[in-house]
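Data card: per-record layout.
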Amino acid sequence: MSIKATVLRLLRRQTLEQYRIIKAVDVFGQSMTANSPDEQMALHDALSASRFLIARNPNASRQLLVEMGWCPLDAAALFVLQYCRRELESGRHHVYPGVLMEKGKGYRRVFDACVDCLWKAGRYDGVRAELERDTLAEAIQQVG
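The structure for this 144-residue chain is written out next.
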């Protein structure tokens, strides 16, 4: 870690775990491409909110990286996934029950990318990944 990064981390009073996960959120965001302005907005909102959640919750960051042995990218994907799930289950991004607005479709795409990331890393097995997708699809059908 560079001196500048160390100083910024200390000024923000972030733990090393938080810093590493926030950097991984940026890497995760760069790995995704948005196909529309609405998807870009959903991705930006999910990444920003995830950074905020990570910065406000040092215990979760420590638990994932130190106690559970996750890598920062997996932890970042989990935080982004949780935010997207919350947004999609809220009903704010629905035209009517079962039908998402364009920004909601963007959140769904980011959610699916997070599930894929966790599945490829071995954090989710195939059954868990499908359960996550099916549970969200059911919630989308009911909310709106």
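Known properties of this structure: The chain has seven helices and two strands. The beta strands are 94-96, 99-100.

See the next section for split statistics.
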